[in-house]
Design goal:
- The protein is mainly alpha-helical and about 140 residues long.
- The chain has a domain of about 100 residues.
- About 65% of the residues lie in helices and about 0% in strands.
- Helix 1 packs antiparallel against helix 3 and helix 2 packs antiparallel against helix 3.
- The chain is elongated, with a radius of gyration of 21 Å.
């Protein structure tokens, strides 16, 4: 028990936060870029302008959405009574340092990796199975 008492509905709140974080992570990889492209296609009439706009708008929208996910993860940590690990990032640790202690992965880390894998598989399947002309032939063929 974490000192705040574990009332019966707390597991429901934690579970709904985990589900929201996962769906938000999936939306970060799929819905945000597609939404940016859709909005830009409505605002511009030229495919080149849409592409250039997406280069700037999509990363900014994903950054904002990612900050929102990080704040939601903070709410999850507060509700669950967990404390985020105060360790140096992996890139700042010594290569010959202590490798025996591994901290458990956070909900946000696991969610981001799983949702990225699902997004890559979904986009690949769409590209090869559902796109009208996924691999256009060069004039003259092979």
């Amino acid at each position: 028990m974490d000192g705040r008492g574990d009332h019966p509905g707390r597991w429901l709140i934690r579970g709904s936060l985990v589900l929201t974080i996962f769906l938000g992570s999936l939306a970060l990889w799929l819905a945000v870029p597609l939404g940016c492209l859709w909005v830009l296609s409505r605002l511009t009439k030229d495919a080149l302008a849409t592409g250039f706009g997406a280069v700037f708008l999509c990363p900014l929208a994903m950054l904002g959405f990612g900050i929102g996910l990080a704040k939601l993860h903070g709410v999850y940590l507060w509700v669950s009574g967990a404390h985020p690990a105060q360790r140096a990032p992996a890139w700042r640790q010594s290569l010959s340092g202590d490798r025996h202690s591994r901290r458990p992965r956070s909900v946000l880390e696991v969610s981001m990796v799983l949702s990225l894998l699902i997004a890559v598989v979904a986009i690949t399947l769409w590209f090869f199975l559902l796109a009208k002309n996924p691999l256009p032939m060069a004039p003259g063929g092979f």
